[in-house]
TrEMBL record:
The keyword Transport does not apply. It is found in: Nucleus, Nucleolus. This is Nucleoplasmin-3. Residues 109-133 are annotated as: Disordered. PANTHER family: NUCLEOPLASMIN, NUCLEOPLASMIN-3. It comes from Oreocharis arfaki. GO terms for molecular function: chromatin binding; histone binding; RNA binding. One of its GO terms (cellular component) is cytoplasm. Interacts with NPM (via N-terminus). Forms a pentamer with NPM at a ratio 4:1 (NPM3/NPM). Two pentamers form a decamer. The gene is Npm3.
Length: 133
């Protein structure tokens, strides 16, 4: 599933969450953060707000965009686990965030060994030789 949201001066945050009763595993991957039409030449800082292993809120800046020098940032499918909030910590935007949401149902997550791959089929690599001086 595709995900997209826009952060602006009037809408400074967007929270992505799933139903607590859902027993599926959810992965949210952030691909691109970019300034959109109407952005000013100012620093726009986007933070990801989540919870750590002690259930304390933590905020991590993931993008600092400025129209004149870096209007777009590719995050190479930066993976997050919901619930997660995207927040415009500085600037007025508009900043567009795009990515995808994958749902893995528990019964689909079982791993079976592939019969096509066996130890005999693995290619042996030659040993590494020391460099000649």
């Amino acid at each position: 599933l595709l995900l997209g949201c826009e952060l602006t001066a009037s809408t400074k945050s967007y929270t992505f969450q799933v139903d607590e009763e859902d027993d599926s595993d959810h992965i949210l991957a952030l691909s691109v953060v970019c300034l959109t039409d109407g952005a000013k030449d100012e620093c726009n800082v986007v933070e990801v707000v989540g919870r750590n292993h002690e259930n304390q809120e933590i905020a991590v800046p993931v993008a600092n965009l400025k129209l004149s020098c870096q209007p777009l940032l590719s995050l190479d499918n930066f993976k997050l686990q919901p619930p997660v909030t995207f927040r415009l910590a500085a600037g007025s935007g508009p900043v567009h965030l795009a990515g995808w949401h994958r749902i893995m149902h528990r019964e689909d997550a079982s791993f079976e060994e592939d019969d096509d791959l066996s130890e005999e089929d693995e290619e042996e690599l030659p040993p590494i030789m020391p460099a000649k001086k």
